[in-house]
Design a protein that fits this description.
The radius of gyration is 16 Å and the shape is globular. The protein has one domain. The longest helix has 15 residues. It has 134 residues and is mainly α. The protein has a two-stranded antiparallel sheet.
Amino acid sequence: MDLLTVLRAIAESAGPNSYKALQVAVRPMNLAAANAWQASLPKHKEKLRLAIIAASAIGDPNRVPWLIEQMNVPAMARVAGEAFTMITGIDLPCNDLEKHGPEGFEAGPTEHPEDENVEMDPHEKLHWPDLVLT
């Protein structure tokens, strides 16, 4: 088994090192192979975040329209906005492309005792993108 196969398996495992393994795995791939792998990830709903991070690591500007679509999914908007920034170099707040999060959106643990979600929001410090395309 080669190193790339191992890294891909770690990346898709949803383990604590999956995002790091993904970023290391896509960099030595040729663009076609990296894009093919990235495009296969969102076919599994639980791998959408991984697909967005892969698009960012690959850096292919052809993925930007897809990332903009992901910015309309509240749970993925901030990570997609970060990927957009990584690929384009456009800083969202500096270019007035930032907004407040959707009303009532709660990604991390809440103060409700019956809420079983105890995971912290992994995107807490990322900006909410506000891209208005004309």
